[in-house]
Every structure is written in C-alpha cells, then in structure tokens.
C-alpha cells in the first residue's frame, strides 16, 4: 500500500480537525476581520468614487431656484426624487446681469406619473441647447450627437420598454442613449431639449393632467444654472443674486459638495478606524490562543522531536496551521462581504444618502487581493511568539513534566 508522507500541511490539517471548536472560533475571528477589510474598503472606494463623479457632473457653480425650493433641488440632484417648481424665465436675464456671472442656462422640470399613461414616475428635465453648458457635455460622452426633437436621453437607472422607448403621457418617445452611471439623482432622470419638453407638456394637457406651471415650457422655468467668471467668488456672486433678485434661493455647488464631503469623510474615518481596531484585536486574540494552545501541546511537539522533527520543522508546523486558519477565515470573510456589498450597491447608496458609485472590476480585485493578504497574514504574525517558544523548549524536560 502506498504511504502518504506527513507533510506540514497534512499534519496541520489533522491537528485542526482534532480541535473543531477551537478551529471554528479562530476562523470566525479572521472572518470578521476579512469581512470588515474587504466590505469596508469597497464601501469607502465607492463613496469616494461617487463623490468625484458628482463633482464632475454638477457642472454649474450656482443654481438659482424659486424661494423655498432649495431643499427640493438638492433632492433632485442627490436622490432623484421627482418634483417640479417654477418661476419667471426673466430671472435668467436678471441673473445674467449680475457682476461675476459668465454664463446662464435655464432648465424646466416635469414629473411623470406612475400610472397607465407613463412607464414610470421619473424626473423629466428640459434644457436649452443654445445656452446649455451642463447637460450636453455629459450627454456627448455617451451619445456623441445633438439631441434632436422628440428624442429622449435616459439616466442609467431608467428602465426602458422592450423597444427602447419610454411612454410618457400616452405617447411613446424613442430613447437615443442611456448615460453612464454617476451616483447622483441624475441617474433616475430623463433629459430632452426644450422643444421636446413643450411637446410632452402639450400631451399631458391633452389627457387632462395639469401641473403647477402657470405656462408651458418657455413661459416658465424651474432653475437657472450659473457659471461664475474666473477670479470671482461663487459665494459673493450668490449673495449678490439673493440681494438683487427677490424670492429666489441660490445653491452654491461647492458648499453643497463640502457638506457631503464632510459626512463622507467622517464615515470613511470611522470605517478605517474600525478596520485597524479589528486587525489589532485579531492579532491579540490569536496570539493569546496560540500561546495557550502551544502550552497544551508541549508533549505533542516533544514526541515529534523524538520521532526526528527538527526545531525548524516544528516552527514551520505552527506557522502553517496559523496560515491555514487565516486563509480559510480570509476567504470566508471576503466572500460574505462580496455577497452582501457588491450586488446591493444601489440599496446601500440609497440608505447612506450619499453619492455611491461602485469601482470597476480591476479596483475591486485589487481590494480583494489586499484584503486576503492582510487577513491571511494575521495568523502567522500572531503565532510567531508561540512558534519561538516551542523552538526553545527542551524535549527531555517536557516529557518529564508531571512525573
């Protein structure tokens, strides 16, 4: 019969199998560590990704909206909650006259319905191609063409009909393209030029649906987006707009982003501190357990020495056991984190109420490799002291203990 050599790996597996409860507890410690490392790292990378995407997509330094609708505008941008509010289009001309204003463009908001007349309830945004400096550069990256009349551009989260259309107010409109994900409320918005918005507005009127707008698109607008001249402070320009134009609110993009960034920074710091704390606790727990275990197994190691195992072999055996434990816990923890974090990115972003954009596959694989490396290293690092102790133990004295 063929004999199988007792390698360190085989001996380590036998030893771990003989102590199932201790083995399971140690694997659980590393599993929790790996879960936090991988899940927390993906979470922080996604939040930072979302924040960078939001900065790139806002495009305007200031957003002028009717008085009392500042929070609603932020909800549109951050969460895509459908809403509509209106004021006179003359506001755009007044804003353009303010010192420090370089460009202005108006937008018109409409909310579809989740009834039989529409595919879903979404935020509809009409823009003026002649003056727009916010929407069209973003659309050009995906669509690469001028948005024609009667054509829609959908955000990444919009669910289209099977024929690549959207039905709005009993009319079907072709969707020319879906934009790349941005982790903002714009992902659940639909964009069109102002002529298409007028047509859609007329269709809504025909089916008896009335909105808050006193006039159709062109007769009223929802927001005026402002680009500030170089060398001018957006806060100062915003203050001038508030003082000179009555009944408007002004959102300063930088201030809004700063507030989100502060919340994001606090969350990221908490996750990083938790990961460091858990890693330190894992090292301490495993060090204590390995020290106690090695003390209990002194005679076992003494027998191995008598059978010809060298001190180096015993040290290697202890380190192999700890590496197997750590590797098993690392795989279990990262797998659990992957199952809970990766498929539910949209839900996580919604619950956190922060921009959340999952990194690409390459970045996720890099985080996975680093998490496995750190979690797998915790066992051997914790067992170094125990391995050093066993290497200094005298076999004769060990065997005579207890006599």
From TrEMBL:
Keywords: Cell membrane, Membrane, Transmembrane, Transmembrane helix, Transport. The chain crosses the membrane at residues 270-294, 314-342, 362-388. GO terms for cellular component: plasma membrane. The keyword Hydrolase does not apply. It is a multi-pass membrane protein. Coiled coil: none annotated. Residues 274-386 form the ABC3 transporter permease C-terminal domain. Its main location: membrane. It is found in: Cell membrane. Belongs to the ABC-4 integral membrane protein family. HrtB subfamily. This is Putative hemin transport system permease protein HrtB. The lineage of its organism: Bacteria, Bacillati, Bacillota, Clostridia, Eubacteriales.
């Amino acid at each position: 019969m063929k004999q199988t050599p007792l390698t360190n790996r085989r001996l380590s597996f036998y030893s771990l199998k003989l102590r199932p409860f201790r083995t399971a507890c140690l694997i659980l410690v590393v599993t929790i560590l790996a879960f936090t490392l991988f899940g927390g790292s993906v979470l922080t990378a996604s939040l930072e990704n979302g924040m960078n995407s939001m900065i790139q997509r806002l495009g305007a330094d200031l957003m002028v909206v009717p008085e009392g609708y500042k929070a609603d505008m932020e909800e549109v941008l951050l969460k895509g909650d459908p809403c509509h509010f209106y004021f006179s289009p003359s506001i755009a001309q007044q804003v353009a006259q303010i010192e420090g204003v370089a460009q202005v463009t108006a937008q018109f908001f409409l909310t579809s319905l989740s009834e039989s007349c529409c595919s879903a309830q979404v935020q509809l945004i009409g823009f003026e191609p002649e003056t727009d400096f916010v929407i069209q550069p973003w659309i050009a990256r995906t669509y690469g063409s001028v948005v024609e009349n009667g054509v829609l551009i959908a955000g990444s989260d919009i669910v289209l009909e099977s024929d690549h259309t959207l039905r709005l107010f009993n009319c079907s409109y072709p969707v020319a393209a879906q934009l790349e994900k941005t982790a903002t409320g714009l992902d659940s918005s639909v964009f069109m030029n102002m002529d298409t918005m007028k047509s859609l507005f007329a269709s809504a009127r025909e089916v008896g649906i009335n909105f808050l707008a006193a006039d159709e698109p062109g007769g009223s607008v929802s927001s005026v987006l402002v680009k500030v001249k170089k060398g001018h402070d957006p806060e100062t320009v915003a203050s001038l707009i508030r003082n000179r134009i009555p009944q408007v609110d002004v959102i300063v993009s930088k201030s809004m982003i700063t507030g989100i960034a502060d919340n994001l920074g606090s969350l990221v710091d908490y996750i990083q501190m938790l990961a460091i704390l858990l890693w330190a606790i894992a090292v301490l727990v495993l060090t204590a357990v390995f020290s106690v275990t090695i003390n209990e197994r002194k005679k076992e190691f003494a027998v191995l020495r008598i059978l010809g195992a060298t001190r180096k072999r015993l040290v290697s055996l202890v380190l192999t056991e700890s590496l197997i434990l750590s590797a098993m816990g690392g795989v279990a923890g990262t797998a659990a984190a992957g199952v809970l974090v990766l498929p539910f990115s949209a839900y996580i972003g919604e619950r956190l109420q922060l921009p959340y954009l999952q990194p690409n596959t390459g970045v996720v694989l890099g985080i996975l490799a680093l998490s496995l490396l750190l979690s797998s290293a915790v066992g051997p690092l914790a067992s170094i002291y125990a391995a050093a102790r066993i290497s200094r133990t005298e076999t004769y004295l060990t065997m005579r203990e207890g006599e």
